[in-house]
Amino acid sequence: MNQSQPLLQLSGLRVDIAGRNVLKSVSLDIDAGALVVLMGANGSGKSTLGLTLAGHPRYRVTGGEARLGGQDLLAMNVEERARAGLFLSFQAPPDIPGVKNNLFIRSAVNAVREARGEAPLDAFDFLGDARAAATRLGLPEAMLGRPVNDGFSGGERKRNELLQLALLQPRLAILDEIDSGMDVDGLRATVDLVQSLRAKGTAFLIVSHYLNLIESLAPDAVLRLEQGCIAEHGDIELAREIARSGFVRVSEPAVA
């Protein structure tokens, strides 16, 4: 990839779900190692954007382009997008009954390693890495041997998403309200992990309304999504203004 080229490039992205237009025209660039916060009122299309980029089949792209590392993201299936280095943390991570957490994550890690031309990790080496990462994130080691998210609290589910993020080390991570249900220690662990991965080149698109977390993350840009378009570009001051006044405000014309 050309180093001067943004890692993620969206141009006029338009998305429908169940015949209803949700994203009208979204354009943005994110460089490797950059962190962009996306804010917006409920229903503005924040989760739609993340799920569309990850390849969720319910979301139909009707216009525009999306490129990751110069490659046509929209031409890839879900598995190809993950192997290319895209990671999405869910707003509400689901249970996967009958599938052990450690096996699930190791399979994902080894699929990505294969795509990078790296040797797979055996169970012993993987467990060593997974235990160390779980300890840093405050996730009990016993949860590695349980079915994915089975009986996990909301905060534990989010920490388990962070565990996957830590072990996969993607090129682009989209975190959808990762702070929801997190305690103070969990938020601190989130910031530490994000900053560690940014230093290695991972780019982040983070959906959050929690000002303390946003300030701790020190984003490169803050965007406000309204009615399916990027209505405002700004920095941390935009997040502070939204925290003070909310989304009900005199809106400038949305820009593509």
Automatic annotation (TrEMBL):
GO terms for molecular function: ATP binding; ATP hydrolysis activity. InterPro entries: AAA+_ATPase, ABC_transporter-like_ATP-bd, ABC_transporter-like_CS, FeS-cluster_ATPase_SufC, P-loop_NTPase. Transmembrane segments: none annotated. CDD domains: ABC_FeS_Assembly. It comes from Ramlibacter lithotrophicus. PROSITE patterns: ABC_TRANSPORTER_1, ABC_TRANSPORTER_2. It comes from the Bacteria. The keyword Membrane applies. Coiled coil: none annotated. Belongs to the ABC transporter superfamily. Ycf16 family. Residues 8-252 form the ABC transporter domain. The gene is sufC. Keywords: ATP-binding, Cell membrane, Membrane, Nucleotide-binding. NCBIfam families: sufC. This is Fe-S cluster assembly ATPase SufC. The keyword Endoplasmic reticulum does not apply. SMART domains: AAA.
